[in-house]
Amino acid sequence: MLSLVRRLSRWARGIGAPPSVPDALWLTTLAHYPFLPQAYEPENARLRLLAAHFLDQKEFTGAHGLVVTDAMALAIAAQACLPLLRLGPPNRPEAALAWYDDFVGIVIQPDEVMARREVMDEAGVVHHYEEVITGEAMDHGPVMLSWPAVQEAGNTDGLGLSVVIHEFIHKMDMKGGEADGCPPLPPGFMGTHSARSARAAWFSVLEPAFLALRDQVSLAERFGQPMPWLDAYGATSIEEFFPVACEAYFVQRARFTEEWPALTRLFDALFHPREQLA
Ligand SMILES: [Zn+2]
To answer: Distance between CA atoms of 153 and 151, rounded to whole angstroms?
Structure first.
């Protein structure tokens, strides 16, 4: 039997049936990632369709001899497509997937990766250091994901974490140019009348939330107060706060809504446009 990825690329060349994901594989994926719309939910079929097209468009590579199975590719595809679930016309998955059309390659690492970094300080001195990373999204380039981190999503004691969602939110952010914490916003976003006022509306909610998390993290680090529930990594910069908050919004929506109601409304305006029309 042909592997799923190969069957999908045969379809792209006009051979065989349109993309679909086999039942057993889909159900196994849903069981592993309970934050995905489950089999009885109406949005399940749309996610499955998006994931099938995603698999058709992207190329998966295993680093260091890692063999990428259909189940691994689907686990990534399903999580990557979750933010697109309600975007674009329901029967045209390609339109929603245009958010991710600046690249095709997804590299899966068998483990975490040590990345070499450099920063320039205020005196102009460049410092080199190494950082452990579980994923990375390059502008107009591939997405790198560590497989153990991909598997952990949704399975971390109620923490709303998903490295896949994180990296693909960076991709959405970069769709409008350099990552700055604000993706391209739809016309009329939150009742605004121009791209500029939409952006201002976005940051008027995102920025105070980012500063609040930064304060919470610094109180925890300096005065021993409890660490906030939202991943402290989001306090490093506003362009990291956006994907970190989105992870929690998609993976642990109930808790996220309780803790961050204004952010929930902001993200709903971006990710749930059809509900707004209803
Ligand atoms: Zn990031």
So the answer is: 6
Could you tell me what percentage of the chain is helix, strand and coil, using 3-state DSSP and rounding each to the nearest 5?
A: 55, 10, 35
- The domain defined by 1-176 folds into Cyclin A; domain 1 (1.10.472)
The dihedral sign for the CA sequence 112, 56, 32, 272: positive
| CA of residue 23 to ligand 1 center, whole Å | 33
Token pair of 148, please?
């153990």
| Domain ranges, ordered by start, for the chain | 1-176, 180-278
Q: How far is the CA of 240 from the centre of ligand 1 (A)?
A: 5
Q: How far is the CA of 39 from the centre of ligand 1 (A)?
A: 30
Q: What is the pLDDT along the chain (278 residues), one digit of tens a residue?
A: 346 655 555 555 555 556 789 999 999 999 999 999 998 888 999 999 999 999 999 999 999 999 999 999 999 999 999 999 999 988 889 999 999 999 999 999 999 888 888 888 888 888 888 888 899 999 999 999 999 999 999 776 678 999 999 999 999 999 999 999 999 999 999 999 999 999 999 999 999 999 999 999 999 999 999 999 999 999 999 999 999 999 999 999 999 999 999 999 999 999 986 554 33
- CA–CA separation, 217 vs 163, rounded Å? 21
Distance 119 CA to ligand 1 centre (A): 16
CA of 134 to the centre of ligand 1 (A): 9
In this prediction the pTM is 0.90
Ligand 1 centroid from CA 102, angstroms: 18
CATH number for the domain whose boundaries are 180-278? 3.40.390
| Ligand 1: centre distance to CA 168 (Å) | 9
